[in-house]
Amino acid sequence: MMLSDTDDRHRSEAEEDENYFVSMTDMMVGILFVFIIMLMIFALNFRTQTDANIELSAEQIEQLNKANDLAEQIAQIRLEIAQEIGKLNEADQARSALLTAIKSRLDKVGLTVTIDKNTGVLRLTEDAIYFPSNRSELDETAQVNVDKIAKALVDVLPRYSNCTEQRNCPASSAYVVETVFIEGHTDTIGSDERNWKLSTERAVNTYRRIVENFPALRALRNSHGQEILSVSGYAYTRPAIEEDNEEAYRKNRRIDLRFVMEADRRERLTHIAGLLDDMAIKVEELRSGPRDGTFQPSKSQDAVK
Q1: Could you say which of 115, 160, 188, 273 is the most buried, measured as most Cβ atoms within 10 Å of its Cβ?
Q2: Measured between alpha carbons, how far is 252 from 135 in angstroms, rounded to an integer?
Q3: In which element (H, E) is residue 148 found?
Q4: CA-CA distance, 175 to 89, in Å (whole number)?
Q5: In angstroms, what CA-CA distances link 177 with 32, 125, 203, 228?
Q6: Are 87 and 263 in contact (CB under 8 A)?
Q7: Is the pTM of this model over 0.70?
Q8: For residues 255 and 234, what is the distance between their CA atoms, to the nearest angstrom?
Q9: How far is CA 172 from CA 90, 94, 124, 168, 176, in A?
């Protein structure tokens, strides 16, 4: 009986010791948790007080605002440049559609031409217009083919010209042709003076045939109110084939039509130029200002990195 009482007493004391250590552990954990919370509050209060103690001078704040404005202008210019590139790409697509439409009409009347969508050139092969060496006149076959080309221009170009009140306008393509250059070319035979004159004569003779039989083409205008058709002579400076043989000479004596599209960029480019002027002024002001101030980039600066 005594042994049993002793065992019970020892067991009771062990349980009390265990409960004591459990309570102490819980209390230590609780104290540690409270300490962590107090440390966090202290850190936040310290940061708030530190930030409050950092005061920029009025001049430093002005410099900071100028820098932030400059960053925003840079972001705006980058955006407008990206939009401008998009407009140019759309104008190139419109020119490609124009060239394809003209070629399609010429194919239907049996006239073979080639087009270069990258340069905007419609090239008349020697089968369309053939010039003997040192000659600039259009023979009978060439005259007939020039009329076919002019008819295709009459059908297609009005959609790509500036509409005036004096004529009925078809649905616009939204992009206007600045100029259609009727370009004359020669081979390398003969003097420079003769070839420059000869190439210009070939272009002028082609132009005269076009506007005499299809005068409506002279009524087509670009956005500046100028006639779309014009002429230019390049002598031998832009050969179709860079070789010295009879076949190359024959193919280089030719007429090209070069289409230059007009994307109305004047207002946008003027606006961009104004932004650049403002930026230059702000950069100069920042250069002349204090260099020991605290600077914090704006969100706009992060956006344009």
Answers
A1: 160
A2: 13
A3: helix 140-156
A4: 11
A5: 80, 23, 19, 7
A6: yes
A7: no
A8: 10
A9: 14, 11, 27, 11, 8
| One pLDDT digit (tens) per residue for the chain, 305 residues | 444 444 454 444 444 444 444 444 455 545 555 545 555 565 565 555 445 445 667 777 777 777 777 777 777 777 777 777 677 778 888 999 999 999 999 999 999 999 999 899 999 988 899 999 999 999 999 999 999 999 999 999 999 998 655 555 555 556 889 999 999 999 999 999 999 999 999 999 999 999 999 999 999 999 889 999 999 999 999 999 999 999 999 999 999 999 998 764 555 566 666 666 776 676 666 655 544 444 444 444 443 33
Rounded-to-integer distance, Cα 70 and Cα 287, Å: 13
Quote the CA–CA distance of 195 and 113 in Å, as a whole number: 24
- With H, G, I as helix, E, B as strand and everything else as coil, classify residue 245: coil
Reported for 5-10, long-range contacts at CB under 8 A and 24+ positions apart, including other chains, are none
Question: DSSP 3-state assignment of 110?
Answer: coil
3-state SS string for 175-243: CEEEEEEEEECCCCCCCHHHHHHHHHHHHHHHHHHHHHHCHHHHHCECCCCCECEEEEECCCCCCCCCC
Phi, psi (5° rounding) for residue 186? -130, 175
Q: How far apart are CA 203 and CA 129, in angstroms?
A: 11
Between CA 283 and CA 110 the distance in angstroms is 62
Distances (CA, A) of 242 to 85, 187, 200, 248: 33, 10, 20, 7
Q: Which residues share a beta bridge with 221?
A: 162, 227
Angle between helices 140-156 and 192-213 (to 10 degrees): 60
Report the phi/psi class of residue 235: left, alpha or beta, with left for phi > 0 and alpha for psi in -120 to 50. left
